[in-house]
């Protein structure tokens, strides 16, 4: 299928395909989710390990995503409209949970990185296209005034998604700027503080979920929230077996509903996407996944 040809000649087909897409309940019988994340490129984050342009090829990324979504136990995908529209045209989204990425304006490396504008999906568009929810990165830097606008926009998005009875997936961090680079604080206390800030966003918490990093003392950290929580895979570094072991331990906590993982599964060191995804699916759903 020539995606560019379809986009040029039949742009309305994207709208029509969203309307026809087969949907599924958010949660299956085991109440767990494995979501593949693919919204990094829109924030100027193309790097994986030592390759700064690893995600530069859209065709390669789509091929990896299609492989991941075809594997048993993969429940869905999180992405920006450009990526999700491509996957839709490829027929990869039927029967999958689909989460739209909402704020990608805080570009990696920009002086305005903490003013993380909502430049992607709106709650109204997520509802009209039949997506299952929206995700927002919510970094809090106490020393950067751009944080205020991000918090305001995140709170508004949580409220609007709840009005449509759609999941608001909030990914909070306490963050700092050091040597012109943004660094997320991944110690337990900073993570706990970020959870409390994020939990209070919006006029309703009925549909709020947390997307949290795997950090030390995670059992204590998870006591900070009653929100359903998916754990993020983080930047893929070190031995994948160590990463899998950390995920396995974290998934034993009762508040953890599953994983949202991007580069660690899509760009494994051995390039075997299917094998990496199958490991994650077994961790989340068990051997029957």
What does this protein look like?
The protein is α/β, with parallel strands linked by helices. The protein is built from eleven helices and nine strands. It has helices at residues 3-9, 12-20, 58-70, 81-89, 123-128, 146-163, 188-199, 218-222, 240-250, 263-266, 273-285; strands at residues 33-38, 76-79, 97-101, 133-140, 167-178, 181-184, 208-213, 229-232, 256-261. Strands 1-2-3-4-5-7-8-9 form an eight-stranded parallel beta barrel, surrounded by five helices. α4 links the parallel β2 (76-79) and β3. The radius of gyration is 18 Å and the shape is globular. It starts with a helix and ends with a helix.
Secondary-structure blueprint of this entry?
Blueprint: H1 3-9, H2 12-20, E1 33-38, H3 58-70, E2 76-79, H4 81-89, E3 97-101, H5 123-128, E4 133-140, H6 146-163, E5 167-178, E6 181-184, H7 188-199, E7 208-213, H8 218-222, E8 229-232, H9 240-250, E9 256-261, H10 263-266, H11 273-285
Parallel strand pairs: 1-2, 1-9, 2-3, 3-4, 4-5, 5-7, 7-8, 8-9
Antiparallel strand pairs: 5-6
How far do the termini sit from each other?
A: 30 Å
Q: Could you give the count of β-strands?
A: 9
Question: What is the overall shape?
Answer: globular
Helix-strand string: HHEHEHEHEHEEHEHEHEHH
The average pLDDT value, as a whole number, equals 95
Q: Count every helix, treating DSSP H or I runs of 4 or more residues as helices.
A: 11
What topology, given as strand order, has the largest sheet? 1-2-3-4-5-7-8-9
The largest sheet is: 8 strands, parallel, barrel
The level of helicity is 25-40%
- Which structural class should the secondary elements be placed in? alpha/beta
β-strand amount: 15-25%
Uncertain parts? none
Backbone CA Rg: 18 Å
């Amino acid at each position: 299928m020539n995606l560019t040809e379809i986009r040029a000649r039949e742009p309305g087909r994207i709208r029509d395909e969203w309307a026809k897409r087969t949907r599924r309940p958010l949660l299956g019988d085991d109440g767990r989710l494995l979501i593949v994340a693919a919204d990094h490129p829109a924030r100027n984050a193309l790097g994986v390990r030592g390759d700064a342009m690893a995600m530069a090829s859209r065709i390669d990324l789509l091929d990896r995503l299609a492989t991941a979504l075809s594997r048993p136990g993969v429940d869905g995908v999180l992405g920006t409209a450009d990526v999700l529209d491509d996957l839709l045209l490829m027929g990869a989204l039927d029967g999958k949970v689909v989460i739209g990425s909402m704020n990608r304006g805080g570009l990696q490396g920009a002086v305005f990185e903490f003013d993380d504008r909502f430049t992607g999906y709106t709650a109204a568009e997520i509802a009209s296209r039949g997506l299952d929810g929206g995700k927002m990165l919510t970094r809090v830097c106490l020393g950067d005034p751009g944080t205020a606008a991000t918090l305001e926009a995140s709170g508004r998005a949580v409220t609007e998604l709840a009005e449509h009875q759609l999941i608001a997936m909030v990914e909070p961090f306490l963050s700092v700027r050091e040597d012109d680079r943004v660094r997320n604080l991944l110690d337990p206390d900073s993570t706990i503080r970020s959870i409390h800030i994020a939990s209070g966003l919006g006029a309703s918490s009925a549909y709020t979920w947390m997307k949290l990093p795997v950090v030390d003392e995670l059992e204590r950290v998870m006591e900070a929230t009653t929100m359903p929580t998916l754990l993020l895979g983080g930047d893929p570094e070190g031995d994948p077996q160590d990463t899998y072991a950390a995920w396995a331990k974290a998934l034993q906590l009762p508040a953890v509903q599953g994983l949202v993982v991007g580069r660690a599964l899509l760009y494994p060191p051995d390039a075997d996407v299917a094998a990496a995804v199958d490991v994650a699916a077994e961790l989340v759903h068990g051997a029957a996944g």
